[in-house]
Amino acid sequence: VTNGGKTTLAEKLKKMLPNCGIISQDDFFKPESEVETDERGFKLYDVLDALYMDEMVKSIHNWIKSPASSGVVTEERQNTCDNLKNTEDVYILIVEGFLLYNYEPLNELWNRRYFLTLPYEECKRRRSTRVYQPADTPGYFDGHVWPMYLKYKNEFEENAINVVYLDGTKSQEELLSFVYSDIIQELQKLRE
């Protein structure tokens, strides 16, 4: 969902987890001149065709092949805890974006999937406080952004993709605590 807190959560997790990097789907948008426009004049940014998805997959595969030399690994983490002892050989990649689970070549790569949700009114309110380049045109949220969110959310739900849903109206601290604890549990399972 747009403005759900994906990037904020990812950045906070990166500071807490060992050898952690982030790849953001937003970094793979095509230039405005390559993004289609619909019959209402809306630029269709909330569709897979607006993104260089093959390049994103390539970046993820490059990271998987060589995480230490990928350039996306973080500096020393800020918070350490007993659960993260002996993790020098553990590398974590957070891939954040809004259309991750609708692109088949990515679905085989996930260890864990999180999906932030927001109710319509809150999503619209948050979106209205952000400045986009190019700027949202009048009616863009209702005419394109929200309908595409619902469409893609329904698509991956129909495909029974195993996703952990996160309530984007909860505080950043609550979300961070939950996801961090969940990742630590997953790391412990992988190391058993």
Secondary structure topology:
Layout: H1 6-16, E1 20-24, H2 53-65, E2 92-96, H3 104-107, E3 114-117, H4 120-128, H5 140-158, E4 164-167, H6 172-191
Parallel strand pairs: 1-2, 3-4
Helix pairs in contact: 1-6
Keywords:
mainly alpha, single chain, globular, 192 residues, two-stranded parallel sheet
Outline the low-pLDDT stretches.
Answer: none
Radius of gyration: 17 Å
Total strands: 4
Tell me the helix content: 25-40%
Strands side by side in the biggest sheet: 1-2
Helix segment tally = 6
The span between the termini is 34 Å
Give the class from helix and strand content and strand pairing. Answer: mainly alpha
Largest sheet: 2 strands, parallel
Task: Give the integer mean of the pLDDT values.
Answer: 88
Order of helices and strands: HEHEHEHHEH
Residue share in β-strands: 5-15%
Form type: globular
Structure description:
Helix 2 links the parallel strand 1 (20-24) and strand 2 (92-96). The protein contains six helices and four strands; from the N terminus they run αβαβαβααβα. The strands form two sheets. It has a two-stranded parallel ribbon. The chain has a two-stranded parallel ribbon with strand order 3-4. The model has no long low-confidence stretch (mean pLDDT 88). With 192 residues, the chain is mainly alpha-helical. It is globular and about 55 Å long. The longest helix is centred in the C-terminal third of the chain and has 20 residues, at 172-191.
